[in-house]
Amino acid sequence: MDANTVFKGLEGVIVSETKVGFVDGEAGRLVYRGFNIEELVQHSSYEEVSFLLINGHLPTASELKSYRDVIMKSSSLPSEVIDLIWAHSNKYPTSLLRTAVSLLGANDTRADHITDSDQKEIGVELVGKVPALVSSIRRAAEGGKYVKPSPDLSLAGNMLYQSTGKKPDKSSERIMDVCLMLHADHGSNASTFSSLVTISSLSDIYSALTSAIGTLKGPLHGGANEMALKLIMEVGKPENVEEVIGGKLEKKEKIMGFGHRVYKVYDPRARILKGFAREVTARNGKGQLFDTAQKIEDVMISKLGTKGIFPNVDFYSGMVYDSLGFHPDMFTSLFAASRTSGWVARSLEYVSDNKLFRPRSSYVGERGPLAYIPIEKRN
Ligand code: CMC
Q1: How far is the CA of 338 from the centre of ligand 1 (A)?
Q2: pLDDT for 335-374, tens place per residue?
Q3: 353 among known catalytic residues
Q4: CB proximity list for 99: less than 8 A, separation 6 or greater
Q5: Is 113 assigned a catalytic role?
Q6: Nearest residue by C-alpha to atom 18 in ligand 1
Q7: How many other C-beta atoms lie within 10 A of the C-beta of residue 109?
Q8: Could you tell me the domains of the chain?
Q9: CB atoms closer than 10 angstroms to residue 198
Q10: The whole model's pTM is what?
C-alpha cells in the first residue's frame, strides 16, 4: 500500500482497542461489555448500563446505591449554569448544551490539574449532569422554572420531571429509560472519536465531552433524528411516500434515518424503537405518522436494501421522543444525554493506555517555492 493512501473519513481504519462495546454490522448486533442490547433493555436500567460501560461489570446492590447517590447529587445543577440556560433559553439546545458543559469545566478547579481519579469522578458526575442540563434546557425553553431532581425517581424519571415539573407515569419513565440505554454507546462513531482525540492530548473530560457534543450536532450523526421526524411529518401520509421519497432519491438526496457506516443490515436499536413508536403513536392518536414511517421504510428497503441501506436508530427515535413531549429541536441533546456514558467510558479507557492522536494529511497543494508578491502588485 502507498504511504500516501488516503482513507477518507478513516473508513475501515482501526484506531484503538476497546472492551466497552461492539457493533457487529453484518449480524446486526450491538453489545455492551459482552451483553446484547436486547438483554439489557429487557432486564436492566440506564443507571446499571452506564455503570457497566464505565466500570466493566454490572454493579452489586451496594455499588449501584453509591453510584445512584452520585448521579442524584450531580443532577442538581449549580446556579451559574442555571443562569446561563435561562439567559439563553431561545438558543438551539445542542449548542447551549455544549456551552453549558464547557462552563461546568471552566468552573471546576479539579479540571485545571487533572488526575486519573479526578477524570473518573468527573465522568460519573457528568452521567448525571448532562441529562439534567438537557432537561433544564427544555424547561427553560418552555418558560418554566428550574426543577430540582427528586430522589424517588430514576435518572430517566428525573429527566422527564426536570423538563416538565410533573412526575412522569411509569410507562413514560420506562420509555425514556429504554431510549437512554439504546443510545449509550456505539463504537468509534464520529463524536466518540472526537472525545478520544481530545482526551489523548491529556486534556480534561469536560473538554472531551464538549468536543463530542459539537460533533454529535451534525445532521450526518446525531442531528439525523430531528430531521427524520420532520421528513415523516412533511410526507404526511402513506399515499405520498412514493412520490416524495422517489423524488428525493432521484435528486440524490440522503433520506435521514437510513444507512449506516457499520450496519449493513437492520439496526437492532431501530427494531426496538420501532416497537415503542408503534405503541406510543397508537396511544396518542398519531397512528398515521407511524404508518407513513412504515411506508417510507418499505420504499427505502425496496429501492436501497440491496445496497445495505436500512433504518438506523434515528428513524424511529424521533417519534418516541415526540410522544414524551420533546420538541424536535431537543432530539440531538437527548442523544447526547445518553451517549455521555459511552463518551466517558471510552475516554477513560483510551487515556489509561494513551497515545496522542496525530494522523497525517497527504499534501496535494502547490509545492513552490513561490516568490512573494507585495499586496499592491496582486490582482
Ligand atoms: N439515503 C439515500 N441514500 C443513501 C443513504 C440515505 N440515507 N445513505 C447512504 N446512501 C447511499 C449513498 O448515496 C451512496 O450511494 P452511491 O453508492 O450510489 O453513491 C451509498 O448509499 C453509500 O453511502 P455513503 O454516504 O457513502 O455511506 P457512508 O458509510 O459514508 O454513510 C451515513 C453513512 C450514515 C453518513 C449515510 O448513510 C447517511 O448520510 N445517512 C443519513 C444520515 C443519518 O441517518 N445519519 C445517522 C446515522 S446513525 C446514528 C449514528 O450512529 O450516528
Answers
A1: 23
A2: 999 999 999 999 999 999 999 999 999 999 999 999 999 9
A3: no
A4: 84, 88
A5: no
A6: 252
A7: 8
A8: 16-218+329-351 (1.10.580.10), 224-323 (1.10.230.10)
A9: 22
A10: 0.93
